[in-house]
Design a protein that fits this description.
It is built from 15 helices and 19 strands. It is α/β, with parallel strands linked by helices. This is NADP-dependent succinic semialdehyde dehydrogenase.
Length: about 475
């Protein structure tokens, strides 16, 4: 895939970039390794000063970088601004809290004594150069939620961003440079996917984090495993959105629309499978479908647009194939199911609701990355749990209920990294984020995320020699 900005609204190639050659890659890896030896010794106050400065600059830049993101990958510009400001929030959150999150831990005195120590503690040290392989769908947020905790922990970063958001990738490197970070702390690698293996195998690179597709995750995990290097993977999702009889159906249906079409439906944590109890199915389906049908599809730089184009022509083709397969096998499109007729250019697709989906259809198993929802009717909580878990993914989940027994049941039995009740899944710096099954492993954000790329070090001190026996 060429490294280029291709406007998904028009299909026009706006700017292309040459991939870095071996000499430039080596220069950047060497700079990162050299910088780590010094940066790791800086104090939390200095790291916080730098990260807060980056947050201030990003806040000022938000309108401009939002337009760049929208031009590169098609998200509505209002959502792009919100993404930039969410990054500002996360930067400031880690700048304020990292020292406490990584404070030494002290085992119980009885356990220390039992170990034979005079005193002992657990200390967190940075690992080193971390390679981040990041996707295009949240081109700022996905990077910052790795970079902010990694830099505050004393690591340095190398970013291999998606090839269709090169200007956003270069902006991030420039942002940290303008904030005053020393050369080598955070660098962008303008390279294709074929260059990842050699960088990851380089002994100067300590670990890797990847957000992206399952095949990409398998590849990075395999290489890292061969090199015995730590990885964190956040892969695909096919999140269930369960609606039980006690739910506030009006709110559930209204929120469901946003949960499905956020980021033009191109989000791993977007609700995708809507599992509705038969007692409220008809009411929910009617209101949800009406909400999806009423969305404004159009130019993502227009402030009134709800849903812009998909990020690429191939992405739209993949989504169309899933919908067409479902329709051919008996599903019904309650709305949508095709390209908007008014858009001959660009990679638009109508907000779509499919009913009558069965396990014979590809969309039942595969992630639909676009504004397409699947509706299921179930008879009770047992069937809802079984259907919700009937997927290879386990990123997050949403449940609408006011019944405490339902709450206990779904927390216990849903196979997912998160269970969100009476609301939609959203990432927040204070809450751990990640999945199970083929959605990956490890966690981002919160104290769990900052510790992922730390050396958890046991510091043990033996008792002083008894002077009477020495």
């Amino acid at each position: 895939m060429p490294i280029a900005t291709v406007n998904p609204t028009s299909g026009e190639t706006l700017k292309t970039f040459d991939a870095f050659g071996a000499e430039e890659i080596e220069r950047r890896v060497a700079a990162a390794a050299d910088r780590f030896r010094h940066y790791r010794t800086t104090g939390f106050d200095e790291r916080a000063r730098l990260l807060n400065r980056a947050a201030d600059l990003l806040e000022q830049d938000a309108p401009d970088i939002a337009r760049t993101m929208t031009t590169e990958m098609g998200k509505p510009v209002a959502a792009a601004r919100a993404e930039a400001l969410k990054c500002v929030k996360a930067m400031r959150w880690y700048a304020q809290r990292a020292e406490d999150l990584l404070a030494d831990e002290h085992p119980a005195e009885a356990d220390v004594t039992d170990s034979g120590a005079a005193h002992a503690r657990v200390h967190y040290r940075p690992l080193g150069v971390v390679l981040a392989v990041m996707p295009w769908n949240f081109p700022l947020w996905q990077v910052v939620r790795f970079a902010a905790p990694a830099l505050m922990a004393g690591n340095v970063g190398l970013l291999k961003h998606a090839s269709n958001v090169p200007q956003t990738a270069l902006y991030l490197e420039d942002l940290f440079r303008r904030a005053g970070y020393p050369e080598g702390c955070f660098q962008t690698l303008l390279v294709g996917s074929g260059a990842i293996e050699s960088v990851l195998r380089d002994p100067r690179v300590a670990a890797a984090t990847l957000t992206g597709s399952e095949p990409a995750g398998r590849s990075v995990a395999s290489i890292a495993s061969d090199e015995v290097k730590k990885t964190v993977l956040e892969l695909g999702g096919s999140d269930p959105y369960v609606v039980m009889p006690s739910a506030d159906i009006e709110r559930a249906a209204r929120t469901a629309v946003t949960a499905r079409v956020q980021n033009n439906g191109q989000s791993c944590i977007a609700a995708k499978r809507f599992i509705v109890h038969e007692d409220v199915y008809d009411t929910f389906a009617e209101r949800f479908t009406a909400g999806m049908r009423d969305l404004t599809v159009g130019d993502p730089l227009d402030e009134s647009t709800d849903v812009g184009p998909l990020s690429s022509e191939q992405g739209r083709a993949d989504l169309e194939a899933l919908v067409d397969d479902a329709l051919e096998r008996g599903a019904t499109a309650l709305c949508g199911g095709a390209r908007p007729k008014e858009y001959e250019r660009g990679w638009f697709y109508e907000p779509t609701v499919l009913a009558g989906v069965t396990d014979a259809m590809r969309i039942h198993r595969e992630e639909a990355f676009g504004p397409v929802a699947t509706l299921y009717r179930v008879g009770g909580p047992d069937e809802a749990v079984s259907l919700a878990n009937d997927t290879p993914f386990g990123l997050s989940s949403n449940v609408w209920t006011r019944d405490e027994e339902d709450v206990r049941r779904f927390v216990r039995d849903l196979e997912a990294g998160g269970v969100y009740f009476n609301g939609m899944t959203a990432s927040h710096p204070a809450l751990p984020f990640g999945g199970v099954k083929r959605s990956g492993y490890g966690r981002e954000l919160s104290g769990h995320g900052i510790k992922e790329f730390c050396n958890v070090t046991t510091v043990w001190h033996g008792p002083e020699p008894d002077s009477r026996t020495s």
